[in-house]
Amino acid sequence: MKQFIVELINDRFMIAAVLLFGLGFMNLLLQKNLIKKIIGFNVMDSSIFLFLASQGYINGRIAPIITNGVFDAEVYINPIPSGLVLTGIVVSVSVTAFFLALTVRLYGIYKTVDFDEIMLLINKEAE
Amino acid sequence: MLPYYYNIPAVSILLCMISGISIPLLSSGRRAYRLTLFVSATVTLLSALLMYKVIPLNEYFTYMMGHFPAPWGNELSAGPLEAMMGFIFGLVMFLSLLGGSMTLFHDILPGKQKFYFTMMNMLMAALLAMTYTNDLFTGYVFIEISTIAACAIVVARDTPKTIGSTIRYLAISLLGSGLFLIGVVLLYCITGHLLMPNIQTQVLRLVSTGLYTVPLTVVAGLLFVGIAIKSALFPFGAWLPMAHGGATTTSSAVLSGLVLKGYIVMLIKIFYRVFTIDVIRDLNVTNIMFACGLAGMIYGSIEAFREEHIKRMLAHSSMAQIGYIFMGIGLDVNLGVAAAFLQIMVHAFVKPLLFLCAGRLSEVYDHEKSSYRLRGSAHKDWVAGIGFTIGAMSMVGIPLLGGFAAKFYLVTSAMMNPAKLWPALITLMISAVMNALYYMPEVIAIWTRCELCTPNPVESNLGFDLISAPLLASGVIFLGLNGYTMIQVIQRGLALL
Q1: What's A60's domain CATH number?
Q2: In this predicted complex, what is the ipTM?
Q3: Which residues of B touch A48 (CB under 8 A)?
């Protein structure tokens, strides 16, 4: 039991990431409210970044910026996941901005952010 | 000193990106259109040169971006398959832009036309990068760029309906991207690499030791489901008919003909260069692909049969054709993957041809999209009528056309795997019959004279009449007549991956 708890604590970032990914994924998939959908997308992507950053982190080491002329790689954490997270954040922000812009356009026309309601109104107009 | 043609993949991608970024500086949509045409024509010629160099030599090369070696640098890799796909992407993009130019400038507001072409260039860059990349994370980044660009060219019409369908497309597409990204991250955590050959070395080591079998299966599944969602494989394709059916003709042609294929080409590359196809088969991922492919063939055909809106019918038909591709990959024989690749190429020509012709035919009756109201339209625009007829006959599988060649090799490869022979044959037969049931009445209707109908005078589009429709139709016929040669080249290309 003690061993299990220790493993849980060691893997806390991974567990949190998996839970957040599920939460974000389901929100993006099922939410009718477009703003909540976008929040779901951001939670999902952030959980992946958390997972990635936690994998790159090595206990007792420092950020991968050369300090005091020390070039020994053993001193620093793995810099690649941090770089990937940065790129991922740029992608995620761009998609969020685009999603929000579309939502604002629809809200301007139908005065609601409920996607089901919007689609009903669109279909009614088409008839 | 590198041979000069090693630079073609990077130059093609950069050319599209630079052109896309500089388009907002141009003064009008017309100029942006001409620049986009020039860029896609240049990419086509460069890719043709690459094909000319690598196909006879059967050469596969890796190109280091900025000359940083692995594992620090980013790489592109190219061989016969990549060169052929680059050529098809460039050519079909050029022909779709040229053939759909009139509806394009009619449907999109003048103030937004420049940005439309920016997105077209970024989409082209993303398709090329997904084909050429040797790095999984770069692949993810360009998947997202293609998602944004694809959604932007759907929403360019700026009607509430297209905005609604774009939101649905974007939301579902982001689910796919999320799954793909978590798959890439897990694979990085297991292997410590992002470049495909380096990952492959580690994956083969893990497979030989029996370690991490479950995580590897999960990763392969995540990458497959992520791409399946984005390429509208059943049951993930609910977004496709609304998005493709509501967009302007050029967008529908590019989305259906190219964008869906870009993802699948990347998936095939990942299967071969990251996992190796034998490992993927051992992990049973191909069985799921096979089942989803068969279901997609039937579902897409039934929905297309029930649809009255001609563009949505073509979009549903795309779902069925995507099913053919995944069925081919799922057959567990090498010829099946080659046949799936041939199907990708054939469909890249046929679907834009059908969309462009349907767009022209609908102009005869004031942009009417209901199938039964297009009666006699081919007599007013016979080039579109002939183009639509050739495309429809190819979809049905009439001999000498590309669709027949693809179906023939799919059946041949199904015969090599007795375990999957009967489900594949029966489904292919049902789907082919369904294709005939929804395409042939359409062909008969457009050629049947209608005395009571009042057609509009159709403005001639020389680009469509003299270049787009003839070249796309020639592509369909060429692939039909040279099916065997194409399969040989594809098989040699797959062996090099």
Answers
A1: 1.10.287.3510
A2: 0.91
A3: 178, 181-182, 185
